[in-house]
Amino acid sequence: MQSPQPSYRNVFFMFARNSLVRDMMFRGNFLIEAISAPSWTLMNQLFYNLIFIYTDSIGTNTGWGEYQFYVFFATTILVNSLVQAFFMRNFEEFSELIRTGNLDFALLKPIDTQFLISLHRVTWSAFANTLFGLGLLSYSVWQLSGQADSDWFLSPLTLLLYVGYVLCGVAILYSLMLVLSSTSIWLGRNQTLYNFWFYITNFSRYPMEIYGGSPVGTVLRLVFSFAIPILLAVNVPARWMAQPLKAGNWLFALVAIVATVLSLVVSRWVFKRALLSYRSASS
Q1: Can you tell me whether residue 111 is helix, strand or coil?
Q2: HSE on the CB side for 8, CA within 13 Å?
Q3: Is the dihedral of CA 91, 95, 97, 98 positive or negative?
């Protein structure tokens, strides 16, 4: 008689609860993590405040004025904090599971291995940055709505699409992280590739308009929009919220959906292929 399939929702809630209990066992460390991350983000915000003392917008006729850019920055915070909360620590530990042979036990569990590897720990302190991002987003939206010379407005559709595309951005970055982590099975240890993930995601932290105006910038924009679609992870939801009437938004929105689906499919395929090459530590 086959055992009943586990409820993935209940399993995830159990993981989240256990992670919270573990964090509360070391409250001092939790508080330090919860304070340090928003503090670093606040310093970045103050840096951007200094920039806008000397300029009214990022680039000429790009539409990224001060509060539009703060919407972009808040979106960057939201996407990255969700990735850090749900996935970052899990994938950092993946190579250790391979090295120590504990991946054997994950493979024996009656649950999808990718789900287990990706979500078995939740970093609750990362949600402090999520709250910071929501606060900055709310403030920026309030400022945009109060500008008398602006045709910006927040509709329910804009808000709904914004939430959806933030989740698409999280999925794109998750897929990239899964692919890089899967190489641990072939390479044994890939700490350098984790550094590569941080380097390459830096391109997603700025509006894609800054990559125009030169052949090199155009190449970077095309590569990181279509080959490795990290520019779409933040730019698409930020454009929907900050510039809802901007021409071309629907095209980028469609590309983002296709890129999200392809990223998830390709990363799943790479993960499965990598598992076929796995050799137990006891073999």
Answers
A1: coil
A2: 8
A3: positive
Q: Which of 48, 80, 19 is nearest to 204 (CA)?
A: 80
Cβ distance 173 to 256 under 8 Å? Answer: no
The pTM (predicted TM-score) of the whole model is 0.90
Half-sphere exposure of 24 (CA within 13 A, CB side): 6
At residue 112, the 3 state secondary structure works out as coil
Q: Could you tell me the two tokens for 94?
A: 């993946």
- What pLDDT does residue 1 have? 44
pLDDT at 281 over 80: no
For 237-276, the DSSP string reads HHHHHH-TT-TTHHHHHHHHHHHHHHHHHHHHHHHHHHHH
Burial of 249 (0-12, 13-18, 19+ CB in 10 A): middle
Mean pLDDT to the nearest integer, 44-73: 87
Q: What type of residue sits at position 166?
A: V
